Amino acid sequence: MPPELSVVIPCFNEAANVRPMVERLDACLRDIAWEAIFVDDNSPDGTHAVARSLAVLDPRVRCLRRIGRRGLASACIEGALSSSARFVAVIDGDLQHDETLLPTMFEAVRSGRADIAIGSRNVEGGEKNSGFSPLRARISEAGAALSAALLPTKVRDPMSGFFLLPRVLFEDVAPQLSGRGFKILLDILLSVRRPLRVEEFAYRFRPREAGESKLDATVMMEFLGLLMDKALGGVLPWRFLSFLAVGLIGIAVHLGILAILAEAGQLGFATSQWIATFGAMTVNFFLNNRVTYRDVRLRGPALRRGLLLFYLVCGIGAAANVGVARLLLREEGLAWGLAGAAGALITAVWNYAMSSTLVWRA
Ligand code: GDD
Ligand code: MN
Prior knowledge:
The protein is an alpha/beta fold.
């Protein structure tokens, strides 16, 4: 029987959790024709090999292996887009979500009662992971409050990564999804123009038994980027904002190096300025590679080539900065502050445009 429900399971280094996940789905989805789609970003622990070995024996198991890309949200999107079933669910691959809720969630959506069913930690009976550090709990709450302010639909746990919806609804919003970061449900809720009928189901966020969490500082930055992107209605793309933020850090690095060299007093100002410039450009390059262009990150020989190109691009940008500012100051009689700002703006746009097309090909 063709599957009615595709269960999309994003995985990164979850080899030990793949088989238990299939066993648990098998146990709780007795009355539903289901398939499991493991989406693995080429994990070094061989998660895909485990998923494949199960798929060979069980036609309900599928494996989507992505190479050269990383990201929870985009993994969920691609998994869901590979489905032909009428309904799609997304659940973490580390067994922290309660899969036994799936039949009830399925019924809520299949019956037409709800447009989307969400596993929630914030409704009566739901429970947060008691293992959350106070800081993570605080961040999680702040994120939820910030998201609630932007959402057209009232959802108690918009940060949940556990939900179920009709595939057509997903395909409707798919072109609007940013695919960045960790929070695919939030992305969906922010992208649907009309209010949705939501039903939330309480569950206890289980402690992780095997493997480790992938939530880190970059993921947090991406989350802020996603909100900013949606709040600004795409006026300024998140990539550009990230590029600017990295640029500001670069200025701080530049001034820091300059101060240290001046303190040491061994080198002349011009030499110090050169060293500071290269230091700042290098830091900017690696930060942009990690954050701004995370999805098209350069590695190996491409990394070296990219760094050289980046020096070149920024060098031309700096020359343009000085040239434009001087021109505006002299010819147009602009105040020095305005002339300087115009020069800097042009440099930022130039650096960004060249980085996005030549250096990273985003
Ligand atoms: N394919 C792929 N690519 N999967 C990934 C990636 C990635 O880059 N990063 C993480 N995953 C997978 C993990 O293997 C895991 O199965 C799932 O996504 C969740 O990642 P965790 O690293 O375990 O996240 P968490 O438990 O800290 O965070 C969870 O927090 C929410 C509650 O606040 C999120 O994953 C949400 O789904 C969850 O509801
Ligand atoms: Mn987890």
